[in-house]
Amino acid sequence: MYIMERSIICQLLILFISFDIILCFPSYQSLIPNGNAVPDTCEKSDIWIGVGHVGPLGSGDRNVFGNDFAKYGRQWTKTLCQLDSDGDGRTNGEELGDPLCLWKPGSNVTLQKAISNPVPLRLKTFVCMRYSLPTTEDYHMIASKPIYNNRKAVNYIAVFGCTSSVEATDKPYYCNVMPEPGCDELMSGYVPMCLDEHAGIQIGRTGYKHVLVQWFFSNPDLKDDVFDNSGIALYYTPKLRRYNMGVGTIVATGFTIPPKQLSYNVTSSCPGFCTEKYLTSDIHVAMTIDHMHLFVNKKSSIYGMEQNKDPIQVKAKDSFKMTCFYNTTLLGSKIGGGFDYSSEMCLGRIFYYPKESWTQPSCASYRSIPLCSLNAGGTVSGCNINHFLLMLRKSPLFTTLKSDCAPYLVCTNACLEHVARIRRHPCLQGDFYQLWQYPKYQKDPFLYKLFRSFKLCEKDYQEHGSFIHNSHAH
Ligand SMILES: *[C@@H]1O[C@H](CO)[C@@H](O)[C@H](O)[C@H]1NC(C)=O
Ligand SMILES: *[C@@H]1O[C@H](CO)[C@@H](O)[C@H](O)[C@H]1NC(C)=O
Ligand SMILES: *[C@@H]1O[C@H](CO)[C@@H](O)[C@H](O)[C@H]1NC(C)=O
């Protein structure tokens, strides 16, 4: 991240190394005994307690194990270690890489790999599981570390916090690149991360009670003997830090990248009038994680994480801006923006604190339009949505549209005249005009009616519209 004139520019980085893919139902490595993994994640190991939450055990029967774990005081005891929670003939210790039950928090016993399963063949596969988190107390999650056992098979692991009341699952299931509603707040994943020492992500009693863990698998050769048991460890502490960490999103949508471009950029932003409205006090940006797909220009680096040693202070009226650079020299045709793998992505996550100070932590843009402007009411490319809608409501235009356009199934001259007049408005030009084509943005009944009239007269407008408008103007 770089500060430029009080704007923040995130450089985007690649996340996926391959376009290939595929499928396994793994049983994942679990890291209940975790002590020796901690120093890798953060330097200060003394504040960790026990273990984080984790990948499932054995063939995914994490619930059974979770129950036992709770039953034995949430500690890795010899008894718990020697149990066979999921009944697959192997002890918990064997499955967790501690077959002799020697591991203790802080000990140096090296964990062995957990046992893995092969899975059905598939091209691209996202697999998810939901887990319960401990809820007896409030905790801060302060670090996390994916454990990739088969880098060829796993493109990444991501963890999302669930805000709705969901149940833990006892098996992995196929899911989408954007996980389900209610479990869509990114918390960690991709790369090891150690949160800024002032803040942690709330889990437990008043924070997330469940997480969704998502694996993105790849099997380029469509082999049927691919195994994986990757997982992720989350580190948390009951010693709450001063601030809660929030994770905001910045994402570009609606874009198209032409082929044969060495350096094509796509941006998304939250202008100052949005932060002025949505920041209740200064925030500090501690880290960003970016997410692009395949056609990444060398200006971006491989893993999309930027950690700011001194978190960047962002004040009301500062702006966020993200720029993604693409290299489509090898591409024969254009590529659009989207979440699936035949599209490109330009998305960033902003880890900031205090969480509560940014009330709408989203900076999505549709092409050149920051979507926060639809609610915050600022002016973009000469268009102020609030003023525009107010103008529509007050003007006689709306009634005339109704009487001259609505009753007919063809475009009348009277209707065409209204259409020609209003369509010159900056709020109906270019990207705005495209944006309003999406029903979800036509929530306002005025806009809806207006666009019905436009549709009716589109052909005539293209042929005669500017002429009509000009003759009126004189
Ligand atoms: C673990 O600790 C024991 C005693 O503290 C020591 O003898 C042993 O070499 C250590 N093992 C590793 C792998 O560091
Ligand atoms: C993005 O592309 C535009 C148009 O080519 C160019 O004017 C602008 O400087 C580029 N921005 C960055 C950050 O490279
Ligand atoms: C763009 O992609 C081509 C083809 O993969 C590669 O040779 C070139 O080095 C890339 N350039 C940049 C700036 O990313």
Keywords for this entry:
3 domains, binds 2-acetamido-2-deoxy-beta-D-glucopyranose, five-stranded antiparallel β-sheet, Jelly Rolls, 26 strands, PHM/PNGase_F_dom_sf, 30% strand, alpha+beta, elongated, 474 residues, six-stranded mixed β-sheet
Mean pLDDT: 76
CATH topology of the largest domain: Jelly Rolls
Helical percent range? 10-25%
What ligands can be seen in this structure?
2-acetamido-2-deoxy-beta-D-glucopyranose
Which assembly state applies to the chains in this document? Answer: single chain
Radius of gyration: 26 Å
Termini Cα gap: 52 Å
The main β sheet shows up as: 6 strands, mixed
The number of helices is 11
Structure description:
The chain has 474 residues and is an alpha+beta fold. The protein has three domains: 2-16 and 245-379, Sandwich (Jelly Rolls); 35-244, Sandwich (Jelly Rolls); 382-473, no CATH class. Helix content is 20%, strand content 30%. The strands form seven sheets. Strands 19-18-22-15-23-24 form a six-stranded mixed beta sheet. It has a five-stranded antiparallel beta sheet with strand order 7-4-11-6-8, with helices on one face. The protein is elongated. Mean pLDDT is 76; it is low at 1-41, 43-63, 108-120 and 470-474. One 2-acetamido-2-deoxy-beta-D-glucopyranose binds at residues 108, 110.
